[in-house]
Amino acid sequence: MNELFDVIIIGSGAGGGTLAHALAPSGRRILVLERGDYVPGEPENWDPTAVWKHLRYRAAERWLDEQGREFTPYMHYCVGGNSKFWGSVLFRLRREDFGALEHLDGLSPAWPIDYETLAPYYDAAERMYHVHGAAGSDPTEPPRGPYPYPPIAHSREMDLLVEGLRAQGLHPSPLPLALVRPGEEGGCRLCNTCNSFPCRIRAKGDAETCGITPALTSGTVALWTNARAERLLTDPQGRRVTAVEVERNGSRIRVEAPVVIVSCGAVNSAALLLRSANDRHPDGLANSSGLVGRRYMAHRATMMEGFHPLKRNTTVFQKTVAINDYYLRGPHQPYPLGQIQSQGRTHGVMAQTAVPWIPVWAYDAWVARGVDWLAMSEDLPRDENRVTADSQGRIHLAYRPNNTRAHQQLVHEAKRILHRLGFWKVMTFSHGNTNTTHQCGTAVFGADPRTSVLDPFCRAHDVENLFVVDASFFPSSAAVNPALTIIAQALRVAEHLRNTDLR
Ligand SMILES: Cc1cc2nc3c(=O)[nH]c(=O)nc-3n(C[C@H](O)[C@H](O)[C@H](O)COP(=O)(O)OP(=O)(O)OC[C@H]3O[C@@H](n4cnc5c(N)ncnc54)[C@H](O)[C@@H]3O)c2cc1C
Ligand code: SF4
Fold first, then answer.
1. Contact of 467 with 460, CB cutoff 8 Å
2. Do the beta carbons of residue 206 and residue 199 sit within 8 Å?
């Protein structure tokens, strides 16, 4: 069966869901292919045991690491993609992130666009995703106007900690958060099961709520769930994608459109291009640079918990504070270290995944007296850190962490800060190589086809009607959460496409 559309978008996450919404008013017939299904609204959405122990919503797929060992990636295949599970922290990159930045362990390369180019799309992205924040208190903030929505208030405990941080000479600022109508009837309830959980009442600013659902009301956008793109087919010259081969509910279908947009997430987009190798593209589609799948980045991230045996933490919604004082330079050397932010509350069953033999009641007692933080440093692009697909289409992820000294220093400083705040003990935990949540960089954008896969509008240099619009285009990972930048670039590409003759 062949079906014809004007635009095919593969993937309904932050990149694809945003594009579908932004292109819907153009009147073009748009098909969104999504390999997963809707996350059902059910009690398990907010149940830590279902989410963390039974991995109810986690992708069932297994990937292979550099040694050929299997692991379960931290991935979700569903309408809205990983955005359904995100912590809703939607930061802009810093202006400096767009230029080349020297780090302790190497260079973070420049982007082909500057902050000013993306700034208007960041504005639109914040409006679209209901981002709440306050401009003016973050020392690394790029030039910007006010946020579209006011910041989420700190709890009483977090307020005291913020005062303590200021007393240390630091500059804490409100985390920018994508939440729909917090505190209002039917809106976000500011609960303690947000980060890593789907929102049972769909009040999270995610790609389903803010992208796909409104796009579907246009009448021009169709969504096929349980529809996995297997391969992209090209014309004999290899210049244009002619069809997408789709596995849908057990049958194989071909769909066609003059424009094909791959938005499967950085790992799956690279895997799809690699699986689509043909005579004209023997090393994978759009891969004359050899960079498809390479330069995979994922952030260096350490979870931290400050513990005080005599202080119960009664905060419900804890994810409200950012500390960017060491983002561009450390306290003892001139290189960037990264960001510290408060995290959602850890539940005993979540903590138990670190050391399963410790009983959950012990963890429950521990986390009731803990405050959770995240230290995050930039991951630098290395050609050796790469995604490949084997002959059965299985994903291999070779990844060795880098920028280790900067991250160790950040964790060291974060511990000092937390001890000075009065915590008796600070526990740390890292998912290490298997943390795929902030994946990016596998189809880098740039002006030169020899050193990039995509042009600055995310069009493949080698294939004229093929775009990749998700986290793949990042030349560097920066050290803030990636999604607002994915969304802003998707809005920029959508505008470009609206002004382009697509035939
Ligand atoms: C627990 C968690 C917390 C996070 N918190 C934050 C946060 O607070 N702030 C932030 O900025 N980022 C956060 N992230 C990261 C953020 O979710 C991602 O950066 C973002 O969703 C990536 O967008 P994307 O479009 O690249 O991919 P995704 O959003 O993952 O979307 C890809 C989509 O493509 C689909 N797909 C894949 N392959 C195929 C195929 N072959 N055919 C059809 N469909 C396919 C997938 O099912 C998925 O729906 C978090 C991630 C996780 C998992
Ligand atoms: S109610 Fe608010 S805090 Fe709770 S999961 Fe939904 S969006 Fe997150």
1. yes
2. yes
H-helix or E-strand spanning residue 32: strand 30-33
469 close to 19: Cβ distance less than 8 angstroms: yes
From the alpha carbon of 202, which atom of ligand 2 is closest? 6
8 A C-beta contact, residue 215 and residue 129: no
Contact 371, 305 (CB under 8 A): yes
User: Rounded to whole angstroms, how far apart are CA atoms 86 and 195?
Assistant: 5
Tokens of 455: 């042009």
**Beta carbons of 461 and 286 less than 8 angstroms apart:** yes
| Closest residue by CA, ligand 1 atom 4 | 86
- Tell me the pLDDT tens digit for each residue of 154-171: 999 999 999 999 999 999
Residue 324's identity, in one-letter code, is N
List all residues 6 or more positions away from 40 whose beta carbon is below 8 Å from its beta carbon: none
The set of protein residues with a Cβ atom below 6 angstroms from ligand 2 is: 179, 188-191, 193-194, 197, 199, 201, 203-204
CA dist list (Å): 442 to 57, 253, 388, 410: 25, 27, 10, 26
pLDDT tens digits, one per residue of 264-310? 999 999 999 999 999 999 999 999 999 999 999 999 999 999 999 99
What does the alpha-carbon distance between residue 99 and residue 107 come to, in Å, rounded to a whole number? 10
pLDDT digits (tens, 9 = 90+) for 460-471: 999 999 999 999
Which residue, by CA, sits nearest to atom 8 of ligand 2?
Answer: 194
Confirm whether pTM is higher than 0.70: yes
Structure confidence at residue 354 (pLDDT): 81
- State which of 193, 195, 208, 345 you would mutate to test the pocket of ligand 2, scoring each by most atoms of that ligand within 8 A of its C-beta: 193
Residue 209 near ligand 1, beta carbon < 6 Å: no
- Helices first, then strands: H and E counts in the chain: 11, 23
Tokens of 287: 């891969």
Of 371, 474, 439, nearest to 160 (Cα)? 371
Which residue's alpha carbon is nearest to atom 23 within ligand 1? 14
Q: Check: CB of residue 249 under 8 Å from CB of residue 49.
A: no
Number of the ligand 1 atom closest to the C-alpha atom of 472:
26
Q: How many whole angstroms from 8 Cα to the centroid of ligand 1?
A: 18
Angle at 320 between CA 129 and CA 327, to 5 degrees: 90
Which one of 210, 264, 350 would you pick to mutate in the ligand 1 pocket, going by the greatest count of ligand atoms within 8 A of its CB? 264
For residues 492 and 35, the answer to whether their CB atoms sit within 8 Å is no
Question: Bridge partners of 33?
Answer: 10, 224
In sequence order, which residues have a C-beta less than 8 Å from that of residue 67 and are 6 or more positions away?
Answer: none
Distance CA(164)–CA(154), nearest Å, equals: 14
> Which residues of 219-369 form beta strands (DSSP E)?
221-224, 227-234, 241-248, 251-256, 259-262, 300-307, 321-323, 339-342
